[in-house]
Specification:
binds zinc ion, about 30% helix, zinc, single chain, about 25% strand, zinc-finger, 5-stranded antiparallel β-sheet, alpha+beta
Protein backbone atom coordinates (compact mmCIF):
# COMPACT_ATOMS: atom_id res chain seq x y z
CA UNK A 1 0.00 0.00 0.00
CA UNK A 2 0.99 3.62 -0.34
CA UNK A 3 2.37 5.30 2.79
CA UNK A 4 -0.20 7.15 4.89
CA UNK A 5 0.31 10.14 7.15
CA UNK A 6 -0.79 10.38 10.76
CA UNK A 7 -3.49 12.83 9.68
CA UNK A 8 -4.83 10.45 7.02
CA UNK A 9 -4.87 7.60 9.53
CA UNK A 10 -6.71 9.58 12.22
CA UNK A 11 -9.31 10.67 9.65
CA UNK A 12 -9.85 7.10 8.45
CA UNK A 13 -11.37 5.50 11.59
CA UNK A 14 -14.82 4.03 10.96
CA UNK A 15 -15.75 2.86 14.41
CA UNK A 16 -14.73 5.44 16.95
CA UNK A 17 -15.64 9.04 17.66
CA UNK A 18 -13.65 11.93 16.22
CA UNK A 19 -12.35 12.65 19.72
CA UNK A 20 -11.17 9.09 20.18
CA UNK A 21 -9.54 9.10 16.74
CA UNK A 22 -7.70 12.29 17.68
CA UNK A 23 -6.37 10.88 20.95
CA UNK A 24 -5.53 7.30 20.07
CA UNK A 25 -1.95 6.21 19.70
CA UNK A 26 -0.54 6.25 16.15
CA UNK A 27 3.00 4.89 15.60
CA UNK A 28 5.68 7.59 15.53
CA UNK A 29 7.81 5.70 13.04
CA UNK A 30 5.34 5.77 10.12
CA UNK A 31 8.09 6.81 7.72
CA UNK A 32 10.06 3.65 8.54
CA UNK A 33 7.25 1.15 8.03
CA UNK A 34 7.60 -1.29 5.09
CA UNK A 35 4.53 0.13 3.31
CA UNK A 36 5.26 -1.54 -0.02
CA UNK A 37 4.94 -4.94 1.68
CA UNK A 38 1.84 -4.09 3.73
CA UNK A 39 -1.79 -4.86 2.96
CA UNK A 40 -2.63 -3.12 6.21
CA UNK A 41 -0.70 -1.43 8.96
CA UNK A 42 -1.60 -2.82 12.37
CA UNK A 43 -0.31 -1.76 15.76
CA UNK A 44 -1.04 -1.93 19.46
CA UNK A 45 -1.26 0.94 21.87
CA UNK A 46 2.01 0.69 23.84
CA UNK A 47 0.24 2.17 26.89
CA UNK A 48 -2.78 -0.15 26.59
CA UNK A 49 -1.84 -3.47 24.96
CA UNK A 50 -5.49 -4.59 24.84
CA UNK A 51 -6.10 -1.86 22.26
CA UNK A 52 -5.08 -2.49 18.68
CA UNK A 53 -5.62 -0.55 15.48
CA UNK A 54 -5.34 -1.23 11.80
CA UNK A 55 -5.48 0.89 8.71
CA UNK A 56 -5.77 -0.21 5.12
CA UNK A 57 -6.85 1.27 1.81
CA UNK A 58 -10.11 -0.08 0.39
CA UNK A 59 -11.43 1.18 -2.96
CA UNK A 60 -8.80 3.90 -2.84
CA UNK A 61 -9.89 5.17 0.59
CA UNK A 62 -7.90 4.92 3.81
CA UNK A 63 -9.99 2.83 6.20
CA UNK A 64 -9.07 2.28 9.84
CA UNK A 65 -10.52 0.21 12.68
CA UNK A 66 -10.13 0.47 16.43
CA UNK A 67 -9.97 -2.99 18.01
CA UNK A 68 -10.01 -4.50 21.48
CA UNK A 69 -8.19 -7.70 22.35
CA UNK A 70 -9.95 -8.92 25.49
CA UNK A 71 -7.93 -10.69 28.17
CA UNK A 72 -5.07 -12.41 26.34
CA UNK A 73 -5.21 -15.54 28.49
CA UNK A 74 -8.80 -16.37 27.60
CA UNK A 75 -8.83 -15.09 24.05
CA UNK A 76 -5.44 -16.10 22.76
CA UNK A 77 -5.42 -19.46 21.05
CA UNK A 78 -1.72 -20.36 21.09
CA UNK A 79 -1.70 -22.09 17.72
CA UNK A 80 -4.92 -20.86 16.19
CA UNK A 81 -5.23 -19.73 12.61
CA UNK A 82 -5.49 -16.09 11.62
CA UNK A 83 -8.75 -15.39 9.78
CA UNK A 84 -7.11 -12.69 7.68
CA UNK A 85 -3.92 -14.32 6.37
CA UNK A 86 -4.55 -18.02 7.21
CA UNK A 87 -1.23 -18.26 9.06
CA UNK A 88 -0.94 -20.24 12.29
CA UNK A 89 1.84 -18.13 13.79
CA UNK A 90 4.08 -19.33 16.62
CA UNK A 91 3.30 -15.99 18.30
CA UNK A 92 -0.38 -16.89 18.44
CA UNK A 93 -3.54 -15.23 17.27
CA UNK A 94 -5.76 -12.90 19.28
CA UNK A 95 -9.47 -12.34 19.20
CA UNK A 96 -9.77 -8.77 17.93
CA UNK A 97 -13.12 -7.16 18.59
CA UNK A 98 -14.34 -4.09 16.73
CA UNK A 99 -17.22 -1.90 17.81
CA UNK A 100 -19.55 -1.67 14.82
CA UNK A 101 -19.78 1.63 13.00
CA UNK A 102 -22.66 4.04 13.59
CA UNK A 103 -25.80 3.27 15.59
CA UNK A 104 -25.16 -0.47 16.12
CA UNK A 105 -21.83 0.43 17.70
CA UNK A 106 -23.43 3.07 19.93
CA UNK A 107 -25.78 0.33 21.11
CA UNK A 108 -22.79 -1.82 22.05
CA UNK A 109 -22.71 -4.16 19.05
CA UNK A 110 -19.32 -5.62 18.19
CA UNK A 111 -17.85 -8.07 15.72
CA UNK A 112 -14.72 -10.10 16.27
CA UNK A 113 -12.21 -12.17 14.38
CA UNK A 114 -8.96 -13.98 15.11
CA UNK A 115 -5.91 -12.12 13.83
CA UNK A 116 -2.16 -12.68 14.19
CA UNK A 117 -1.36 -11.24 17.64
CA UNK A 118 1.45 -9.12 16.23
CA UNK A 119 -0.72 -7.88 13.32
CA UNK A 120 2.04 -8.89 10.89
CA UNK A 121 -0.19 -10.76 8.40
CA UNK A 122 1.27 -8.98 5.36
CA UNK A 123 4.82 -9.96 6.29
CA UNK A 124 3.87 -13.60 6.92
CA UNK A 125 2.10 -13.84 3.57
CA UNK A 126 5.20 -12.48 1.81
CA UNK A 127 7.63 -14.62 3.80
CA UNK A 128 9.22 -11.43 5.16
CA UNK A 129 8.75 -12.55 8.75
CA UNK A 130 9.15 -16.11 10.01
CA UNK A 131 5.90 -17.35 11.55
CA UNK A 132 7.50 -20.56 12.88
CA UNK A 133 7.53 -24.17 11.68
CA UNK A 134 4.32 -25.35 10.01
CA UNK A 135 2.74 -21.93 10.32
CA UNK A 136 1.94 -21.46 6.66
CA UNK A 137 -0.08 -23.84 4.52
CA UNK A 138 1.74 -25.43 1.62
CA UNK A 139 -0.09 -23.95 -1.34
CA UNK A 140 0.54 -23.61 -5.04
CA UNK A 141 -1.12 -20.17 -5.10
CA UNK A 142 0.99 -17.29 -6.38
CA UNK A 143 1.95 -14.56 -3.95
CA UNK A 144 -0.36 -12.20 -5.81
CA UNK A 145 -3.31 -14.53 -5.20
CA UNK A 146 -2.41 -14.91 -1.54
CA UNK A 147 -2.25 -11.16 -1.17
CA UNK A 148 -5.61 -10.80 -2.92
CA UNK A 149 -7.10 -13.35 -0.56
CA UNK A 150 -5.69 -11.57 2.49
CA UNK A 151 -7.12 -8.26 1.32
CA UNK A 152 -10.48 -9.93 0.61
CA UNK A 153 -10.63 -11.32 4.16
CA UNK A 154 -9.77 -7.93 5.58
CA UNK A 155 -12.38 -6.21 3.41
CA UNK A 156 -14.97 -8.75 4.56
CA UNK A 157 -14.18 -7.97 8.20
CA UNK A 158 -14.45 -4.22 7.54
CA UNK A 159 -17.81 -4.90 5.84
CA UNK A 160 -19.04 -6.63 9.00
CA UNK A 161 -18.04 -3.56 11.03
CA UNK A 162 -19.87 -1.16 8.70
CA UNK A 163 -22.89 -3.41 7.92
ZN1 LIG B 1 -2.58 -12.97 10.08
Amino acid sequence: MEPLTEQQIRAAFLNCTKGEAKRLSVPRDLADRPWADLDYLGWRDPQAPDRAYLVTVLDGRPTALALRCPSPTAAQRPRGMCSICLTTPAGGVSLMVARRAGRPGQQGNTVGTYVCSDLACSLYVRGRKDAGPGARLQESLTLEKKVQRTVAHLAAFVARVTA
